[in-house]
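ZP: hey, is the iron/sulfur cluster complex queued? I don't see it on the tracker
AM: it wasn't, my bad. submitting now with these inputs:
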Amino acid sequence: MRWSEQSTLDAPGVVSVKGLLRTVRTPEFADMTFHEVLAKSALNKVPPASSMPFRWTVNPYRGCSHACVYCFARNTHRYLDLDTGADFDRQVVVKVNVAEVLAAQLAKPKWGREHVALGTNTDPYQRAEGRYGLMPGIITALVEHRTPFSILTKGTLLRRDLPLLARAAQEVPVDLSMSIAIYDEALQQAVEPGTPTTAARLATVRAAADLGFRVTVFLMPVLPYLTDSVEHLETALDSIARAGAARVVYGALHLRPGAREWYLEWIDREHPHLAPKYREMYARSAYAPNAYRQWLARRIDPLVAEHGLNARADEEYNPTRSRSNQTRARAQHDSEDAKALELRTQRAGSREDRNAAPTLF
Ligand code: SF4
């Protein structure tokens, strides 16, 4: 790290965030601005009304250089007086003391050692992690305080920490998931311009699987009319199975405020013929219509079964199911996988049905 070449911006109020230490730009991260803050708290409590299957999260970064056009976390940048588009991608808040604060919170007698989820808001292995290296301290704090945790990422930097995570999994349940939605190189770079390639992410899945992790791949969001063809889904599931993943979680695109404007602007620009269809699909809700989601399940589930994977729709996914160690996890999931496979196979419609065009939309 050539710290001498970085510049510190003396611009008070450049970002509206508590605990701001300094704002930094550096040649290694062109177009990026890092706002380094001292956080008072590392653990975020998920609101009780949330449907999330975990109660605690840790987010070392706000904003994300992976820059996915569909990212539902974009709206959170509004609270920093930054925009939900380019600012979200390029102006990243870094909680430089997150590991120390987390360790102090976990050491409190009242901490119940509940599951902690990482990567549910912004990506903990985005590019900034290569500079700040916050995750090893976070993982160490969680393990020292006997706290089970899960990580969801698109970042291949996860590989750096796999040995540490393998040791952690000897002590506490550790659930690893890689998000890989797009299996067409040009489309992937257009939709997720700051992410590692699909091939690099699949190689990371393989590296984790080789260490004994039962990795989940998030095949989501499935983009209507862009990545929901049988051909694309077959390529996806074949690649995922070959990479050694154990499970797939899939789900159709959500367009919440913040992501909605940014994504539809991208559709208008890149795929204008789809613009009316998208506006109709998402006219009444941030979620794809039920009929589309059911159609997608009928298309994906049989393909998943054919590839020997276990699948869950995103609303069914729960990373918090307790596992005391990798061996117990393997036995439990082998049993679950067998049951799920049987069910999926029974439910699978005919090939003609799943190959049919989505005429409902
Ligand atoms: S990797 Fe996740 S958090 Fe980052 S931009 Fe993409 S969807 Fe958002």
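AM: back. Residues 322-361 have pLDDT under 50 and may be disordered.
ZP: great, adding it to the tracker
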